[in-house]
Design goal:
Length: 364
């Protein structure tokens, strides 16, 4: 099967449903966007796993003023439970939906299910429904307080889990050792240049060309090994930073950062998450595009603040480097560190510049 024939997340999800649930869904009178349908099916599958069997889609609620309302999922029987799935819920609209349901079914229960990218904003929806569910792409369903506590715990563990402290301390030690060896190597070079110059001058010969003579002293090999260690540590730290950013990016975006062997950064796309989030390569309007960016930026601002709330290490201190190449490495690492705390701006720039990626898989 070629990449163009690969099934989308929605198609695979529909195929994974039990026959009775799949038939009920396929017979539903209305369908919305793929992102909304994925959310709705994940919720339906969750309800099924909890033992609820009397499930239907697009339940019609007759309004008193003759305007019907369609609710995404209805659980019949004694539960009489309505579940509305919203990717970008508006509190006033949710309250209005709840009011209509309560008028038609006074003893019913109303649940609002939202995508996990709206998890941080779910607190603003408190009271708009009897329960609010935060749904992840892997099918997990959690209450807002539960979701927030777990997400905070994950974010706060990122730096510790990725060993940044140990790695930056290792870099500092290598940096100091390299600076010492460079100084010794330079002193040794001057010593041998001077010794050679004195010898040549005694032979009545011109010695100025010795300034360009490459001299590998006893300390050169040690300096080169330390330089290699610095580069390896720098690359390791950068890889860990990319891993960290990918974890945060995966929470609210379809983008994946990859560090190439040539130390270049490439942005790729997770097409399952692209469909789940309802991202559009070519948005119908600027307002649609802006809305996507704004949600992503708000989430990253919250999550980066939690993830990077760590004591400062020697990496962020002002250090004086006498060796130009060493100073460049230190400058690069400080830039990486600063970029972690400003990643929402980086992502906005990457997206605005039209990320170059292959087209998403087509619907077969």
């Amino acid at each position: 099967m070629t990449s163009a024939e690969q099934k989308t997340l929605l198609q695979r999800l529909i195929e994974s449903l039990p026959d009775n649930l799949r038939n009920a869904y396929e017979n539903a009178p209305r369908k919305s966007s793929p992102a909304h349908e994925i959310l709705r099916l994940l919720v339906a599958r969750h309800l099924l796993s909890k033992g609820y069997r009397d499930l239907s889609f697009e339940k019609v609620v007759n309004g008193n003023q003759g305007q019907d309302a369609y609710v995404d999922i209805y659980v019949g029987g004694e539960l009489n439970m309505f579940v509305e799935c919203e990717r970008k819920p508006n509190r006033m609209k949710v309250l209005e939906r709840r009011r209509k349901i309560a008028e038609a079914y006074p003893k019913s229960k109303f649940i609002l299910a939202v995508q996990d990218r709206m998890g941080w904003l779910s607190q603003k929806l408190t009271g708009a429904a009897d329960e609010i569910w935060i749904v992840s792409m892997d099918g997990q369903v959690k209450a807002p307080w539960e979701w927030i506590e777990e997400r905070k715990s994950l974010l706060q563990s990122l730096f510790a889990a990725h060993g940044f402290k140990a790695m930056t301390e290792e870099y500092t030690r290598a940096e100091e050792e390299y600076r010492r060896l460079i100084r010794l190597e330079e002193e040794e070079k001057v010593y041998w240049q001077t010794l050679l110059a004195k010898t040549i001058i005694k032979a009545s010969a011109e010695a100025s060309w010795l300034n360009n003579l490459k001299i590998r002293g006893a300390w050169s090999a040690h300096a080169e090994k330390t330089w290699q260690k610095l580069n390896q540590t720098r690359l390791a730290i950068t890889r860990r930073v990319v891993e960290l950013l990918n974890i945060i990016l995966s929470l609210s975006s379809p983008f994946i950062l990859k560090l190439g062997e040539d130390y270049s950064l490439c942005v790729e796309v997770d097409w399952d998450r692209w469909q789940w989030l309802g991202w559009k390569d070519l948005p119908d309007s600027r307002s649609t595009q802006t809305s996507q960016y704004r949600t992503l930026e708000k989430n990253m601002e919250i999550e980066l603040k939690i993830a990077t709330k760590q004591p400062k290490t020697s990496l962020t201190e002002n250090r004086t480097c006498t060796d130009p190449e060493l100073a460049n490495i230190s400058h690069e690492l400080k830039s990486i560190w600063n970029n972690i705390q400003e990643m929402e701006q980086i992502i906005k720039t990457l997206i605005t510049q039209r990320i170059q990626a292959t087209k998403p898989p087509t619907t077969s």
